[in-house]
């Protein structure tokens, strides 16, 4: 009989989807500018001082084209802007606009509420243990088995 036990990456994916869906629903209910899950992920990996599209793509684990499309959509609705990179005349940095900063803080508050709701469902102790395990450095992935 095949195992029904799901692996950790599947469980992480489900957990992320739970937070993403809760965040997007709360933002929509608050009348915020509609964003996609990819755009939410982009906001999560964006540095406060600005980040290149290539670096955003690397952090998100997507192609540069996908990251560029997400950036373009968020620039179009006024949540992000492109500025020259002071370290390189050829590169541009992506950063939040004032409206983008407000949206980012709103999303952070929603995520805190979602975490509290999760603690009510599975216990504060379980959430704290999960957080501690995920905050512990894991080190680099192990080399392939020979």
UniProtKB/TrEMBL annotation:
Signal peptide limits: none
Pfam families linked to this entry: MarR_2
UniProt GO MF annotations: DNA binding
Keywords for this protein: DNA-binding
Domain HTH marR-type: from-to ranges: 5-139
InterPro entries associated with the record: ArsR-like_HTH, HTH_MarR-typ, MarR/SlyA-like, WH-like_DNA-bd_sf, WH_DNA-bd_sf
Protein name: DNA-binding MarR family transcriptional regulator
Taxon lineage: Bacteria, Bacillati, Actinomycetota, Actinomycetes, Kitasatosporales
């Amino acid at each position: 009989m095949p195992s029904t036990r799901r692996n950790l990456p599947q469980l992480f994916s489900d957990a992320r989807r739970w937070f993403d869906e809760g965040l997007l629903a709360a933002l929509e209910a608050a009348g915020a500018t509609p964003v996609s899950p990819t755009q939410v992920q982009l906001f999560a990996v964006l540095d406060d001082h600005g980040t290149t599209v290539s670096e955003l793509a690397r952090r998100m684990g997507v192609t540069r084209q996908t990251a560029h499309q997400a950036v373009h959509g968020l620039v179009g609705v006024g949540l992000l802007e492109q500025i020259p990179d002071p370290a390189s005349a050829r590169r541009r940095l992506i950063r939040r606009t004032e409206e983008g900063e407000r949206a980012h803080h709103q999303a952070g508050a929603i995520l805190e509420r979602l975490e509290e709701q999760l603690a009510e469902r599975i216990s504060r102790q379980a959430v704290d243990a999960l957080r501690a395990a995920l905050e512990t450095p894991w080190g680099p992935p192990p080399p392939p088995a020979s």
